[in-house]
Structure to design on (1042 residues):
């Protein structure tokens, strides 16, 4: 009985989401639509970081690097030769890339695969390092990638960046990818493989003693995360239709960390909710940077106040409520009945109902 | 701790909500035309953005209204901070055209940020006027982006001519900020022109790179010292260039330093002090070279308000605003497409920084002013006409 | 490459390296005690410089008074930071405290942007520090000669503190095994605060010296030096004060000498530090002077 109700509720929710995306695409103004689509892209990115950080316990700060790789690969593969000629006015593009133009989906996959390949190359030596060293090493790689992109004028157009990327990141595309990522992650974490991920996160040495190939688990996690980050970066590039190396700085990784921590390190639902919340908040709190008229003090615009608030929020969460919004729990329809919104089911043991109310 | 854990985030949210409630909201009452100001107010480019906004605000104070179809409209500036970040820039631009429904957009400092806004203004059919962004890609292929300044190919040529003709240089070394499109572009155009002038492909002895936020250039400069060039072209941002020149002089390099318009800021002299004496660069505006009445009006008004001389990009901000309302007047309509057409037809518009005529790409054909640092002040040297 | 040219490059390398060394010491001390990469170290460095600047220009104090006061104030800020952002997380997973450090770093940077403005400011450099000296064919600025002297003086002072005082012994105890130290009735909180204060003091001192050499202040000035000095500390062996100094000089050397011999790679300069880091982490993770630590289960 329970399972069937859950299934029906889930199906209704999926249909509702589909309807929402459909309505959004038609009815939302451009500005709202842009924020809406950014939310989807951040969902993909947050989930990819959560896989590494929350589920495998690997603290990697190299996300921006993989995003950059994904964005550039996809851009160079999908831009028309005419666009490329216009962009590369300082020094001509390498002949190999000059006339390549392939459709979006293969290019997107290629972007993910190239990013994943780099993740494999980087991960193999680096993943055996301890948390803090891993963090700095991956940060280092992200910076190296950025410096290389900036200097390879004839491949990436260097500091000038690329403009005129085709507008492939439509509402349907980004939300489909977001939905696919969520489904994929749920499948992954519920599987046996997911359990070995969590075992590695909780206690690496015990996991090794249990016979889990820790190195293998880590590298697969890293590569999959790299793939998703590459795809996310490509989607972002095609939403902006212009990219340059300065986009992919550590600050971008920081935004994603913010989302993952706020949502709960280890909760997919948390990442989804936090992605949407933070993306919307970033815009909603824009007024903080402008002239403020509090009752007792007037300011003429304090640029930077918005980011101060976000940093305070991050620190408050990490210090006082480390689990973030959802901790490691996932969404289930039972949550509503616990909150008293749904009628209580019969035949459920009393203890379970009471105990499950705590976080 | 547990109590703090629950209440602190709630307190934070409540505080923000309180501020939100009290925040000044832009009330548009009656006949108002909104002009969007799309500039970096925070982040790496905040200094440049702040200066352009100064010019725009000054112009708005002096010319707060425009008459369209017989009715007088008040002009309201809507400032959207693009945080020197490309993703933010796109969102900020989108907000300006969608939510604020501006009739025109001014900005941004930093070509890559302008390029982020490009597709958005094109889609929304709202004209945008770049003020000091000199990368040709900003207006190329975009009918809705214009600019009131010259572009890098011209500026590079001007400096190469100066180096060859006035400084008498036959060899040069380039020190470029490799992560800055402005620097790389300008360096390339200088190189091309210098090679043509000297007829010698090997006249550029070396090209040395540095990255944004670098502070130690001794390694690159020591190499330059051993090459002994006639002139050094260092078209980077003033933040690094002041340090480059300072360290060069400390190492005993005496060759003249040439650069671009980003040098003209008070911070350049503040950081470099005596050691940036003699730095020569091309820029958009010079108080002494000012010929039109508008230049004098601008300089007087600026000096009256801030008691100091205006930097070039401030004059460009001023001009951008004036050009925008002039286009609205000429279009005699609030229809953004008509305003765009009026902009495209701009000829001989008298701005503070010279006469503006927009070409087919939307770029301004303007004179460049060569200035140098003398006795701790920016001093006008000469003007170069296109 | 001529001898004169090489000597100039060498002088530049030593000058840069000694600055990195000084700042790396602060990093390594904090890491030794808390096993924490203090991402905010570079921002404390920045705060020290800004405080010195404002004390000279606004409070109009004579420069040497301003510098001392700024260093003292920054040390207190560092202690405050530890108490607020790191102490509550001492028994939490390492990832949490690292995230707190990153958050603190961004918070300080943005707060500095709000308070001081994003536009760079020229630091006030007293003449004594900006004299250009000529030793043969080599040119060097007076501050660049003073910095190595300060670095070695501080190294000596710290080694004395760590090895010959009670506090130093407590520090070594805490860094070896924090629980055992507690059992020995060592007030761990006080030792940690002291270490942080000392580390922040060094960061502020480093910030002021940095600004005397590169007189440009902006809120993000601490990011790259912070990262590079952490790399220097790792190169030399993190937790080891002598190692930090060695690592600093080594890093300065690598950065400048590679460009000296391969000027085509100037654009990749920042990458050298990271490549060096990764190589060390892979080949000898404990650094040049570090000891291999076995992790007991």
């Amino acid at each position: 009985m329970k399972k069937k109700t859950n299934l029906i509720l889930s199906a209704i929710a999926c249909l509702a989401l589909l309807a929402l995306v459909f309505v959004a695409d038609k009815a939302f103004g451009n500005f709202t639509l842009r924020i809406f689509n950014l939310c989807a892209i951040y969902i993909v990115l947050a989930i990819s970081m959560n896989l590494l950080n929350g589920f495998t316990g690997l603290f990697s700060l190299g996300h921006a690097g993989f995003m950059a790789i994904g964005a550039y690969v996809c851009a160079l593969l999908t831009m028309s030769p005419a666009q490329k000629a216009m962009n590369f006015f300082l020094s001509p593009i390498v002949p190999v890339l000059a006339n390549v133009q392939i459709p979006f989906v293969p290019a997107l996959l290629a972007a993910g695969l190239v990013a994943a390949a780099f993740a494999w190359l980087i991960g193999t030596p680096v993943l055996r390092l301890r948390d803090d060293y891993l963090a700095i090493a991956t940060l280092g790689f992200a910076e190296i990638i950025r410096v290389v992109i900036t200097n390879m004028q004839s491949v990436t157009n260097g500091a000038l960046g690329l403009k005129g990327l085709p507008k492939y990141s439509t509402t349907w595309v980004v939300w489909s990818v977001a939905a696919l990522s969520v489904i994929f992650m749920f499948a992954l974490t519920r599987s046996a493989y997911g359990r070995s991920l969590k075992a590695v996160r909780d206690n690496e040495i015990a996991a090794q003693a249990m016979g889990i190939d820790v190195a293998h688990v880590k590298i697969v996690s890293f590569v999959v995360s790299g793939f998703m980050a590459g795809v996310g970066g490509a989607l972002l590039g095609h939403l902006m239709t212009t990219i340059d190396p300065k986009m992919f700085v550590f600050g971008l990784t920081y935004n994603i960390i913010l989302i993952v921590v706020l949502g709960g390190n280890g909760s997919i639902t948390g990442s989804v909710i936090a992605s949407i919340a933070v993306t919307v908040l970033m815009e909603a709190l824009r007024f903080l940077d402008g002239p403020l008229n509090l009752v007792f003090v007037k300011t003429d615009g304090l640029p930077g106040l918005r980011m101060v608030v976000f940093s305070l929020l991050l620190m408050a969460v990490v210090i006082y409520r480390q689990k973030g919004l959802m901790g490691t729990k996932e969404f289930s329809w039972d949550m509503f009945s616990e909150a008293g919104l749904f009628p209580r089911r019969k035949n459920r043991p009393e203890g379970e109902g009471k105990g499950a109310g705590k976080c | 701790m547990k109590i703090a854990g629950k209440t602190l985030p709630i307190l934070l949210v409540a505080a923000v909500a309180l501020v939100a409630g009290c925040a000044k909201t832009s009330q548009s009452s009656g006949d108002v035309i909104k002009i969007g100001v799309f500039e970096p107010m925070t982040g790496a480019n905040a200094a440049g953005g702040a200066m352009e906004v100064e010019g725009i605000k000054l112009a708005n104070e002096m010319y707060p209204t425009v008459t369209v179809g017989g009715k007088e409209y008040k002009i309201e500036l809507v400032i959207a901070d693009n945080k020197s970040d490309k993703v933010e820039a796109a969102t900020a631009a989108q907000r300006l055209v969608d939510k604020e429904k501006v009739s025109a957009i001014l900005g941004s400092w930093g070509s890559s940020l302008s390029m982020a806004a490009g597709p958005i203004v094109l889609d929304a059919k709202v004209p945008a006027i770049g003020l000091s962004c000199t990368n040709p890609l900003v207006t190329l292929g975009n009918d809705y982006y214009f600019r009131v300044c010259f572009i890098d190919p011209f500026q590079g040529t001007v400096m190469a001519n100066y180096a060859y003709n006035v400084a008498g240089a036959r060899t040069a070394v380039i020190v470029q900020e490799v992560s800055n499109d402005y620097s790389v572009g300008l360096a390339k155009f200088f190189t091309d022109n210098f090679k043509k002038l000297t007829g010698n492909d090997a006249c550029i002895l070396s090209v040395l790179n540095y990255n944004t936020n670098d502070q130690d250039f001794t390694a690159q400069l020591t190499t330059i010292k051993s090459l002994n060039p006639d002139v050094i072209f260092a078209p980077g941002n003033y933040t690094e260039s002041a340090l480059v020149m300072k360290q060069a002089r400390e190492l005993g390099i005496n060759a003249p330093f040439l650069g671009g318009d980003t040098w003209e800021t008070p911070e350049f002299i503040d950081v470099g002090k005596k050691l940036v004496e003699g730095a020569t660069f091309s820029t958009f505006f010079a108080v002494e070279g000012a010929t039109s009445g508008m230049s004098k009006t601008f300089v007087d008004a600026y000096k009256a308000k801030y008691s100091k001389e205006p930097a070039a990009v401030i004059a460009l901000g001023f001009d951008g605003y004036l050009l925008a309302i002039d286009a609205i007047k000429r279009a005699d309509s609030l229809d953004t497409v008509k305003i765009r057409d009026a902009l495209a037809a701009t000829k001989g518009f008298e701005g503070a920084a010279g006469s503006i005529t927009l070409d087919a790409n939307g770029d301004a054909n303007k004179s460049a002013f060569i200035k140098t640092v003398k006795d701790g002040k920016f001093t006008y040297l000469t003007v170069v006409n296109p | 490459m001529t001898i004169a040219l090489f000597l100039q490059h060498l002088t530049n390398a030593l000058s840069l390296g000694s600055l990195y060394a000084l700042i790396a010491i602060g990093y390594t001390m904090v890491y030794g005690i808390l096993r924490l990469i203090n991402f905010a170290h570079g921002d404390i460095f920045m705060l020290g410089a800004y405080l010195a600047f404002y004390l000279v220009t606004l409070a109009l104090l004579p420069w040497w008074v301003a510098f001392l006061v700024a260093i003292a104030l920054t040390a207190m800020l560092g202690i405050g930071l530890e108490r607020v952002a790191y102490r509550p997380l001492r028994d939490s997973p390492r990832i949490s405290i690292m995230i707190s450090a990153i958050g603190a770093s961004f918070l300080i940077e943005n707060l500095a942007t709000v308070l001081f403005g994003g536009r760079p400011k020229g630091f006030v450099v007293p003449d004594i520090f900006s004299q250009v000296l000529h030793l043969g064919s080599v040119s060097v600025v007076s501050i660049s000669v003073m910095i190595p002297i300060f670095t070695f003086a501080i190294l000596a002072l710290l080694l004395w503190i760590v090895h010959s005082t009670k506090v130093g012994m407590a520090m070594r105890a805490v860094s070896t095994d924090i629980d055992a130290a507690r059992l020995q009735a060592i007030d761990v909180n006080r030792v940690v605060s002291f270490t942080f204060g000392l580390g922040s003091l060094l960061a502020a001192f480093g910030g002021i010296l940095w600004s005397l050499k590169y007189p440009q202040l902006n809120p993000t000035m601490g990011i790259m030096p912070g990262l590079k000095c952490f790399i220097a500390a790792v190169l030399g062996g993190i937790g080891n004060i002598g190692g930090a100094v060695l690592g600093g000089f080594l890093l300065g050397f690598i950065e400048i000498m590679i460009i000296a011999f391969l000027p085509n790679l100037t654009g990749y300069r920042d990458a050298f530090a990271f490549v060096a880091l990764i190589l060390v982490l892979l080949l000898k993770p404990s650094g040049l002077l570090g000891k291999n630590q076995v992790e007991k289960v």
User: Anything to note?
Assistant: The interface with chain C takes residues 1, 41-44, 46-47, 50, 178, 206, 208-211, 213-216, 218-220, 222-223, 225-226, 239, 242-243, 246, 250-252, 267, 270-273 of chain B (CB under 8 Å). Confidence is low (pLDDT under 50) at residues 1-6, 21-29 of chain B. The CA atoms of residues 367 and 385 of chain B lie 4 Å apart.
